[in-house]
Amino acid sequence: MSLCRYLPVPSDRMAIIWSLLSVKNSLVLEYGPAGTTHFSMGLYGTLGIDFENRLFTTHMSEDDVVMGDVTRLENAIKELDASYEPEVIFVVASSVSAVIGTDIKGVCNYMQNEVKAKLVSFEQGGFRGDYGIGLNEVYKLLVKNLPQKSDKIDGSYNILGASMGRYRMESDVWEVQNLMRDAFGMQPVACLCCDTTVEQIKNMAAVSLNLVFCSEALEAAEYLKEKFGTPYVYCPPYGYKKTMAFLQQVSAAAGKPIAPALMAELGKKTRNFGMLGMYAMMGGLKKRPQAVVKADYDTVCCIAEFLKEAGFDVTHKICSHALKSVMNPVPDVKFYADEKERLDIFRSLQNTLVLADDVSIMQCDNTNTCLRISAPVINGSQVATHLPFMGIKGADYLMETIELYYQQLY
Amino acid sequence: MTINGKDLVAKLKPLSSVESIKDIPQLTQAMFPGTHCPLMGAAMAVGGIKGALLVVVGTDECTYYTKSMTLHSERFGGPGGRCVSVVLDGHDVTFGSTPKMHKAFKEIVAEYKPECVFLVTTCVVEVIGDDYDAIAAELSDAYGIPVMAVHTEHFKCEDHLPGLERTITACFDMMEKVPQNDTANVLGQRMGEFKTTELYKMLVKAGVKIGMQLPAGTTVDEIKNAAAARVNIVVNDIALPLAKKMKARFGIPYVYFNKFVYPDKIYASYKELFEYLGVPLPEEIAAYYNEAKEAVTAAGKALGGVSYIYGNTPYYCFEMNAFLASLGMVPQVIQTNRFSEENDYYVQEILKHTDPLVCKAANIAPMQYVYDELHPWLYMGHEFGARLRKKGIAIVHSDAAGSMLGFEVTNYLLKQITVAAEEAKIYRKEAGL
């Protein structure tokens, strides 16, 4: 990639910070020039993250850069510990401290003796990859540092892989929590990393099941399985069939039956959906429905599968981040490092259902039917926390757009 | 939380002990929100130059935030507009970014056909030492368009103003020797439009044509022809380096007409400007001067003893604080990220009346505890009004002053302070002070 005309793919560091800011009773301290922190507030605000009195910067002077002096960082750690008495201080490197090779981990190690808060260091300065890598790292580091052995709480679960950077993530969490309650009467403990607390993360080992929303959280789930014996289910519930599969897998792992009322509702929706493609073809569509999907890896895979079930030819499955962070990615999901190549795909589309982000949708002409399903959000803002893409409600919502698209094809 | 306001206040230094910016302490080591960076300043400046393309060279993060800032900007042309980036990865950091830049530039020229390009480098580029001055010169030669490098590493400066300063100074390279006309250039207006100012109205009344307005809104052609001006009006310190260069190369004098609030200073600046222009001073100016003097006398009676903390405003920091101190107001803390010898006169003026504490700006989180110690009546700058009200403090609004120059600045300031002081009386009662 050389020229970037729109927004670049967010870095590992950005994902680490937006995830950590979602963990209450903790503070985030950036060791780097203050301007980056100030500039970043705009993004975190649009993601719905509360960062007031949570996000701090040390700033850095030329002396710090040239001489490698970390006094400023040491003092800032002591100051935050004394002033805010947080349970945890996450100390995050900047691109500058990463390039000059500041040993953030080392500083945290020796400073740990001088402060009450637990210090957790993140040395990624934005050069290890994009936000996919950052999410993978942050989930791993959190589960390795915070959860403690505790008595099991029957009927409880954690969510892993709920990134606040993902469009409508809070809505998806809300929908899955509702499903878990209605289907099994189960209650959530921690959610990495969306509206959770240090206390909840410490208590992660108490649950009977972990739900994994994305591939980036699989290593963390494996770690928790190995260390605390907690099984996990990795089946993001997009679409009716996948929601059914998700419930069945949870049922098997938790040893609880699915509530009959929910099963009946989902069964009916699944049957109706199965007829959709057939009716559409009988109605005289001018062409075979085709779609393009661009989003995070798991969203792309699952929504593309849902569309395929509805009779779509999904011509492009485009991942918003590099596939380095995905374990065994399927070959037909592509990441385009070259922005132009990706933009050209969207510019060439005609009479297509486009499920993507605002920048991609902006490239499409008006013969296409478009729905925003992923970040970045440029037009308007994300306010609601009850409009999911996951679960029954999410599938219903996608169905409305599919029906709208069909109307354009008659 | 256990922040001790007394300890914080004890860390601050009195103004009398400050000799350079290094003597001004940060209120705390851990800051929120921290200052803006010069990259943002550079972006603001390029936004004001039609036909110029902003190319940010840096990490995903720096480029992401800068692009985000321009997404809804009409000046930049929205999401597909004239802000693009060259994003550096680990490979570029190790082996240099020159090949990537050359490749990207080819695409830039083909797709955007820019009249000029600013290559704005960020912290990492400066740390790895890529020579963007040389790269800009090479690209300029290769493509026959002006390409300027603007360095915006934040670890060498305190806020975003150097980014503005360096960008407008870089425009000097585009200026050509051209025959003189009777225009006046306006240099350094950061916010608002010049044509809404009192100064503009007086110039128009006197028949003076305005030339280049950098960075308030100009074109590449206007920059190329800027040396035709009879005089440069410098309305902010950020334009001083450019004005000095233009004086040295083209012999164009400049008048320093900052956002002054002392009526005498404003009157003197008007006189100096119109003398250079060789046209008589419009009659209204003397009348405005007298009105402003009367407003000062009237306000002085009401504002004596009113204390305040100075944050960040469009005014000329030390001149404005000296003016308020001369009215009997009490600056308890002055937050500033700039301090130089040019401030000496006004510092001495302040010290004749009082010796306020000083600290760096843009750290409002711990400032809450300073309010609890000092109980100021007013806060000047950006803060959260409801939060301050609970502490018995009223905000003095100042953003509108961004697009003012002349006696209107004095009148506006006095009006805002008088209103806020009345509000503070109520708020202090509510807070039991």
Describe this structure in words.
Chain A is α/β, with parallel strands linked by helices and 410 residues long. Chain A is built from 16 helices and 16 strands. The mean pLDDT of chain A is 94. Chain B is α/β, with parallel strands linked by helices. Chain B is built from 18 helices and 16 strands. Chain B has helices at 5-11, 38-47, 60-70, 90-95, 98-112, 123-128, 132-143, 161-170, 198-205, 220-224, 240-250, 263-277, 284-303, 317-326, 344-353, 364-374, 385-390, 407-430; strands spanning 13-14, 49-50, 52-58, 83-87, 116-121, 147-151, 184-187, 210-214, 218-219, 231-234, 254-256, 307-310, 330-335, 357-359, 378-380, 394-396. A 6-stranded mixed sheet of chain B has the order 1-14-13-12-15-16, sandwiched between helices. A 4-stranded parallel sheet of chain B has the order 4-3-5-6, sandwiched between helices. In chain B, β12 (307-310), α14 and β13 form a beta-alpha-beta unit. In chain B, α13 (284-303) packs parallel to α18. The radius of gyration of chain B is 23 Å and the shape is globular. In chain B, 55% of the residues are buried. The mean pLDDT of chain B is 95. Chains A and B meet through β1, α2, β4, α3 and α4 of A and α2, α3, β4, α5 and α6 of B. β1 of chain A pairs antiparallel with β4 (83-87) of chain B, so a sheet runs across the interface.
